[in-house]
Design a protein that fits this description.
nine-stranded mixed sheet; PH-domain like; disordered C terminus; about 290 residues
């Protein structure tokens, strides 16, 4: 009789369901309590219940995310990273994503070149962006090459694992479902074009990415050189679609960052300002006008 003919599986969720109803019950009691002191206590109890409920919901979400990451980790194929000689990928050859926080995930199309598009499942973690390719049950992390100049060594490798601390995002003016992700290093810049199936999906992917990259750069003030570089990147973006029309812009990005290293070495080392009039380029002579 005490079980009311309920099975164990029916009784386990009872405490959880009751927890969600406490704030509503206390709110109703507070609305019908006339004595101010007593009403204040009831309202405080209701607020505490809401905080407990929020904590429980967040713990459930975190556990669900962890279980998903464990499943992805089990299916993750790192063989391409381990065989790669790219020094930027060496730290990811034993990548363990279960130690990360899952921020967002979903399917996107990665436009590698004008004629090559790859379907990927994007994992946005707290400090990394992963571009996963599905192959049966496996999830591959595989780099792709893109030709910048018509020479034997004129190719650049687009990596499938990227740190958010060096990331920026920009919209694609000619495609409302697409957006650019720019990653910059000391002497290199790479542009990724990612396409969602709908405009809303693009927004749902780009906004968490933008927020994560900003948090990754939080606390670091943008130097004048970095600000100039970002303005140049923004100006070049309309010309950076994969294909021949984007080759010049991609090459220019690399030259801009290399020139920044030559002109502002002291600024990056100790925060000094830009060169004064009369300062020379490394090796001696004064700067001559272009």
């Amino acid at each position: 009789p005490r079980c009311r003919r309920l099975q164990l599986k029916d009784m386990i969720p009872t405490e959880m369901q009751r927890l969600t109803k406490y704030p509503l019950l206390l709110q109703s009691i507070g609305q019908n309590t006339e004595e101010p002191t007593e009403r204040e206590k009831v309202e405080l109890a209701a607020e505490c219940c809401r905080e407990i409920l929020h904590h429980v919901n967040q713990a459930v979400r975190d556990m669900e995310d962890l279980l998903r990451l464990k499943d992805y980790q089990r299916r993750l194929d790192l063989s391409h990273l381990r065989q790669s000689s790219d020094p930027m990928l060496s730290e990811f050859k034993n990548l363990d994503i279960t130690k990360k926080k899952l921020v967002h995930e979903g399917p996107l199309t990665w436009r590698v070149t004008k004629d090559k598009a790859v379907e990927v499942h994007v994992l946005l973690l707290d400090d990394l962006l992963l571009l996963l390719q599905r192959q049966d049950e496996r999830l591959l992390l595989k780099s792709h090459s893109r030709t910048l100049t018509p020479t034997p060594d004129g190719k650049t490798m687009l990596r499938p694992v990227l740190r958010l601390t060096s990331a920026m995002t920009r919209e694609v003016a000619t495609d409302h479902k697409a957006f650019y992700v720019l990653f910059t290093w000391d002497q290199e810049a790479q542009i990724y074009e990612l396409v969602a199936q709908t405009v809303s999906e693009r927004k749902n992917t780009r906004e968490p990415l933008l927020s994560s990259s900003e948090n990754g750069n939080g606390g670091r003030e943008t130097s004048p050189a970095d600000a100039r570089t970002e303005r140049i990147l923004s100006d070049l973006l309309p010309f950076c679609r994969p294909g021949p029309e984007g080759q010049l812009a991609a090459t220019a990005l690399r030259k801009v960052l290399s020139l920044k290293q030559l002109l502002f070495p002291a600024e990056e080392d100790n925060g000094a300002g830009p060169p004064r009039d009369g300062d020379g380029v490394p090796g001696g002579g004064p700067l001559s006008p272009a």
